[in-house]
Write a structure and sequence with these properties.
This protein is mainly beta. It has a domain at about 205-210 and about 220-325. It contains 2 helices and 35 strands. Strands 7, 8, 9, 10, 11, 12, 13 and 14 form an 8-stranded antiparallel beta sheet that branches. It has a 6-stranded antiparallel beta sheet with strand order 30-29-28-27-31-32. It has a 5-stranded antiparallel beta sheet with strand order 1-6-5-4-3, with no helix packed on it. β21 and β22 form a beta hairpin. It is globular and about 55 Å long.
Length: about 400
Amino acid sequence: MAPKLALAALAALILATPQPAKAEEVGANWSVSGLEPLGQPIGADATVIGYVRRDQRTYLQARNPASGGLLWEAEAEAHREAPVRAGRWIVYREPAEGFGPGYASLVVADPRTGRQIQRSPSMIFSGTPESCFENRAVCVTAAPEPEEAAHGYRLDLISGAFVPSADGIPGEGLIRIGTDITLIRDGKVLWRRPDPGAISRPEPGAPRDLEPSAPSRPAPSAPIGPAPSAPRGPEPSAPTRPEPAGVSRADAGTTGWTEFGGVWSGATRTGSAGLSAADGRLLWTAPGVLTDCGLPPGTPEIRCRAGRIERFDPLTGKAHWSAPLRGPVGVTAGAIVVRGVAISRNTGERAPATTAYWCLARGLATVCGDEGTPPITAWTAVGAVAAGYAVVATPAGYLGRSVDPAP
């Protein structure tokens, strides 16, 4: 189905028009209300792209960052993640209900116009599409039929060919297959190893959990100290394991782990772990179940676990600094704000938050802190930046503010 242009949008969208008067209350140049955004938008080729929910359906919308005006929209499968880019194009999955429940087509579109550049056959997809082959293709996990095994496919952005990456290779990125975890790049398995999240007893030679520490209470002007820990050395290189000959969709899925500093880190059943991005070695494990900090993308060095928020070293799992997690977490330039205290992301030093800032809950922003408006640096830390504007998604809709230094 082709995207709907703004002139042909449904009457319900008329309610979601820019409202400059309301925007002034938070220092914005414009606002769009009457929407239910699903997380923060992204900037793409002088537009902002985001998911919204309407009438129990999900739509991908493109808006003019200078005015909030709707450029186009297309129905899309519901997503928890931000929209996906492949080079200058935008990628989404369009429902294909005529083929049956769960079917969709992978669509690559121009972010300015919504024109479809390439489109896949209708299949049953799982996981998140990934740009691959140096932005020349999009890699996905899909199955032709509900009962068939899932495999990795790639949609070539030049030719439009939609072909299996290789027999038995499901998708792209860090993939969980049953009790194994596999790193796949450009359709090739780089390594495969037992999933730390599925291990009930320590592996031979694996480092022991980092010991939890008693919460420290430094003086307000002092850096927040790290939780002391003494992990043992990393395990030997992960052995190469046979590639799976196709997997059921129930057995294959993305891990939700994050790559940072040459390490993949993420949640296990009882805490967290770090794996070498080079060969999959288990570098460390740490106790304390991870929770969602509510922070925007671009903060992979920050984690929340066992009621604390921390900056951690990806190579060792040790906390550089740690602070009690109380109430919503806010974001300003270079700092995390917890209950009115700004904590430097780099050093852990604390100072009172002297301006308003954005707090995030379920991916949406609200104004917290002192009276006034969040500074430009807070807008750019949270929202999508495009064409000299930052656009932030709130529970009520979108807000846009000029961040261009020119008058």
